[in-house]
Specification:
The complex is a heterodimer. By secondary structure, chain A is mainly alpha-helical. Chain A contains seven helices and no strands. Chain A is elongated and about 85 Å long. Chain B is rod-shaped. The chains are: A mainly alpha, B mainly alpha.
């Protein structure tokens, strides 16, 4: 009964997220006007900004979960699984940010890629967390894995503020923040601002959905791992008993 | 700006394909693992 209710709740949450993303796409691709300078290519803004926002959020959650795992009083396996689940979602969104930004760069800057401070630090962020995910797959006990991943998760998070502030610190090709710039001067208005805010909210909900589903999958993977370990131990004991007899 | 919609299409297309593939993989793997664990506990 409880799992049925949970399933129903998950279904409705998934449906809500789909509708929110659908409305975001409608505003981004149809209702919002083209930009005076960039024309229709500005529509990539409504995808590029929400995806990097989700990546920041995901890595922040990984960082917090890592701290909670490292502190002995709050240490629980769930924090380690949450950190891993959130990092995986973050890597997917960072990858999308890089691709979409690159596609946007071609018509606006005349190039797909340039070793600009923002682009380079974002690429480093992507590879740092890709390394973190690889580290999670190395063989170790749950405790060893938790410790090394929590430390790696916190080290990698140091790049997030660098990525965000890179446009202020180095003033290279990438433009300053549309909303979160040093003077907090919002440089977007009207239906374009609404579309951006809606897209960010819709993608945030999507992140929560993905993260909960990934966490559930991680718990199942953990259960399977334990089950396989139990079977392996039982098999070994059986063989040892046969040898003794 | 010429061919602007091409770039918009590529950007949104890539995002859609990546996210749809990820969600499908996640849901399928969840279903498969659930079945495996249920079978193991029954057996």
């Amino acid at each position: 009964m409880t799992s049925g209710l949970q399933g129903l709740r998950r279904y409705w949450f998934g449906a809500t997220v789909t509708v929110a993303l659908g409305i975001a796409a409608l505003f981004a691709l149809v209702i919002s006007p083209p930009d005076a300078d960039q024309g229709d290519v500005v529509r990539l803004l409504y995808l590029h900004v929400p995806t990097i926002w989700v990546a920041y959020l995901a890595f922040f959650v990984t960082g917090v979960a890592s701290i909670l795992w490292l502190v002995p009083r709050t240490r629980r396996t769930e924090w380690d699984l949450l950190a891993g689940a959130s990092a995986e979602v973050g890597v997917i969104f960072t990858g999308i940010t890089l691709v979409v930004g690159s596609v946007w760069g071609r018509p606006t800057w005349g190039t797909y890629w340039v070793w600009d401070a923002r682009l380079t630090s974002t690429a480093i962020l992507f590879f740092l967390y890709l390394g973190y995910l690889a580290l999670r797959r190395t063989g170790a006990t749950a405790d060893e894995r938790g410790k090394r991943c929590a430390i790696a998760g916190l080290i990698a998070f140091a790049d997030v503020p660098i990525v965000h502030l890179s446009v202020t610190w180095w003033q290279t090709l990438h433009q300053n923040g549309t909303v979160f710039n040093p003077k907090l001067e919002v440089t977007i208005h009207g239906s374009m601002a609404f579309t951006l805010v809606w897209s960010v909210a819709a993608f945030t909900l999507f992140y929560v959905y993905l993260m909960l589903r990934r966490l559930q999958l991680a718990e199942l993977e953990e259960g399977l791992e334990e089950r396989e370990l139990e079977l392996a131990i039982a098999e070994r004991q059986r063989v040892e008993e046969m040898v003794t007899v | 700006m010429p061919h602007a919609w091409n770039y918009v299409g590529v950007g949104y297309g890539v995002a859609l394909v990546v996210l749809a593939t990820y969600v499908t993989w996640m849901l399928r793997r969840t279903r498969r693992l659930r079945k495996t664990l249920a079978r193991d506990s029954d057996g």
